[in-house]
Amino acid sequence: MWRPALVRAGLLGKAIQEGENVYRGVRQDDAGREQTETFETEAAAVKEVSRRAPEGCGSSTCATRTRPGWCPTALPVNDVQRVMGREQATTTLNLYTHDSGSARTRLFDAFAASARRRARLRT
Q1: Element (H or E) spanning 22, and its range?
Q2: DSSP letters for 29-98
Q3: Are 14 and 49 in contact (CB under 8 A)?
Protein backbone atom coordinates (compact mmCIF):
# COMPACT_ATOMS: atom_id res chain seq x y z
CA MET A 1 0.00 0.00 0.00
CA TRP A 2 2.83 2.43 0.85
CA ARG A 3 4.86 2.14 -2.37
CA PRO A 4 1.89 2.72 -4.74
CA ALA A 5 0.97 5.77 -2.64
CA LEU A 6 4.52 7.07 -3.10
CA VAL A 7 4.18 6.61 -6.86
CA ARG A 8 0.86 8.48 -6.92
CA ALA A 9 2.48 11.28 -4.88
CA GLY A 10 5.38 11.45 -7.33
CA LEU A 11 7.98 10.50 -4.70
CA LEU A 12 8.90 7.05 -6.01
CA GLY A 13 8.08 7.45 -9.69
CA LYS A 14 5.11 8.52 -11.79
CA ALA A 15 2.19 7.17 -13.79
CA ILE A 16 1.40 9.69 -16.52
CA GLN A 17 -1.66 9.48 -18.77
CA GLU A 18 -0.62 10.06 -22.36
CA GLY A 19 -3.85 9.19 -24.12
CA GLU A 20 -6.95 7.05 -23.86
CA ASN A 21 -5.83 3.77 -22.27
CA VAL A 22 -2.16 4.80 -22.54
CA TYR A 23 -0.15 5.40 -19.35
CA ARG A 24 3.58 5.84 -19.05
CA GLY A 25 5.24 4.50 -15.91
CA VAL A 26 8.37 6.46 -15.03
CA ARG A 27 10.89 5.36 -12.39
CA GLN A 28 14.58 5.52 -11.53
CA ASP A 29 16.64 2.35 -11.77
CA ASP A 30 19.29 1.41 -9.20
CA ALA A 31 21.86 3.52 -11.07
CA GLY A 32 19.58 6.58 -11.04
CA ARG A 33 18.70 6.42 -14.75
CA GLU A 34 15.13 7.15 -15.78
CA GLN A 35 13.22 4.10 -17.04
CA THR A 36 9.83 4.26 -18.76
CA GLU A 37 7.27 1.69 -19.85
CA THR A 38 3.81 1.96 -21.40
CA PHE A 39 0.68 0.42 -19.85
CA GLU A 40 -3.03 0.23 -20.66
CA THR A 41 -4.22 1.31 -17.19
CA GLU A 42 -3.02 3.66 -14.49
CA ALA A 43 -3.24 0.84 -11.94
CA ALA A 44 -0.88 -1.32 -14.02
CA ALA A 45 1.60 1.56 -14.38
CA VAL A 46 1.53 2.34 -10.65
CA LYS A 47 1.91 -1.33 -9.73
CA GLU A 48 4.89 -1.87 -12.01
CA VAL A 49 6.64 1.37 -11.04
CA SER A 50 6.21 0.61 -7.34
CA ARG A 51 7.36 -2.99 -7.83
CA ARG A 52 10.47 -2.10 -9.84
CA ALA A 53 11.61 1.04 -8.02
CA PRO A 54 14.81 0.67 -5.96
CA GLU A 55 14.51 -1.03 -2.58
CA GLY A 56 14.67 0.95 0.62
CA CYS A 57 11.72 3.20 -0.18
CA GLY A 58 9.74 2.70 2.99
CA SER A 59 8.15 5.42 5.06
CA SER A 60 11.42 6.32 6.81
CA THR A 61 13.27 6.68 3.52
CA CYS A 62 10.50 8.83 2.13
CA ALA A 63 10.55 11.07 5.18
CA THR A 64 14.33 11.34 5.01
CA ARG A 65 14.24 12.31 1.36
CA THR A 66 11.73 15.07 1.93
CA ARG A 67 14.19 17.14 3.96
CA PRO A 68 15.97 20.01 2.18
CA GLY A 69 18.97 18.82 0.21
CA TRP A 70 17.59 15.32 -0.29
CA CYS A 71 14.72 15.96 -2.62
CA PRO A 72 14.29 18.66 -5.27
CA THR A 73 10.76 19.27 -3.99
CA ALA A 74 11.61 19.49 -0.29
CA LEU A 75 8.58 19.56 1.99
CA PRO A 76 8.13 21.47 5.26
CA VAL A 77 8.96 19.28 8.25
CA ASN A 78 5.53 20.04 9.78
CA ASP A 79 3.81 18.47 6.76
CA VAL A 80 6.07 15.42 6.96
CA GLN A 81 5.36 15.22 10.71
CA ARG A 82 1.61 15.03 10.13
CA VAL A 83 1.87 12.44 7.34
CA MET A 84 4.23 10.27 9.40
CA GLY A 85 1.90 10.51 12.41
CA ARG A 86 4.44 12.09 14.76
CA GLU A 87 3.32 14.32 17.59
CA GLN A 88 6.24 16.76 17.35
CA ALA A 89 8.34 18.05 14.48
CA THR A 90 11.50 17.45 16.54
CA THR A 91 10.66 13.73 16.69
CA THR A 92 10.36 13.70 12.91
CA LEU A 93 13.73 15.41 12.54
CA ASN A 94 15.42 13.12 15.05
CA LEU A 95 14.08 9.94 13.47
CA TYR A 96 14.17 10.68 9.77
CA THR A 97 17.05 13.02 9.04
CA HIS A 98 20.52 11.67 8.49
CA ASP A 99 23.92 13.20 7.87
CA SER A 100 24.40 13.32 4.11
CA GLY A 101 28.13 13.97 4.36
CA SER A 102 27.96 16.57 1.61
CA ALA A 103 26.11 18.99 3.89
CA ARG A 104 28.91 18.72 6.44
CA THR A 105 31.51 19.35 3.74
CA ARG A 106 29.63 22.45 2.50
CA LEU A 107 29.37 23.73 6.08
CA PHE A 108 33.10 23.26 6.73
CA ASP A 109 33.94 24.91 3.40
CA ALA A 110 31.77 27.91 4.30
CA PHE A 111 33.48 28.24 7.71
CA ALA A 112 36.92 27.98 6.11
CA ALA A 113 36.07 30.63 3.51
CA SER A 114 34.78 32.93 6.24
CA ALA A 115 37.98 32.45 8.28
CA ARG A 116 40.12 33.23 5.20
CA ARG A 117 38.15 36.44 4.57
CA ARG A 118 38.58 37.52 8.21
CA ALA A 119 42.31 36.77 8.04
CA ARG A 120 42.70 38.88 4.86
CA LEU A 121 40.86 41.79 6.52
CA ARG A 122 43.26 41.71 9.49
CA THR A 123 46.39 41.96 7.30
Answers
A1: strand 22-28
A2: -TTS-EEEEEESSHHHHHHHHHHHSPS--SHHHHHHHTSTTT-TT---HHHHHHHHT-S-HHHHHHHH--
A3: yes
Instruction: Judge if 50 and 97 occupy the same domain.
Output: no
CB of 46 closer than 8 Å to CB of 4: yes
**Are 62 and 122 contained in the same domain?**
yes
Euclidean distance between CA atoms 80 and 117, whole angstroms: 38
Task: Return per-residue pLDDT of the chain as tens, 123 residues.
Answer: 677 877 887 778 889 999 999 999 998 877 778 889 999 999 999 989 888 876 655 555 555 554 444 443 456 777 777 776 777 878 767 766 666 666 667 777 777 788 788 788 876
Range of the domain at 16: 1-55
Residues 6+ apart with CB under 8 A from 23: 15, 16, 17, 38, 39, 40, 41, 42, 44, 45
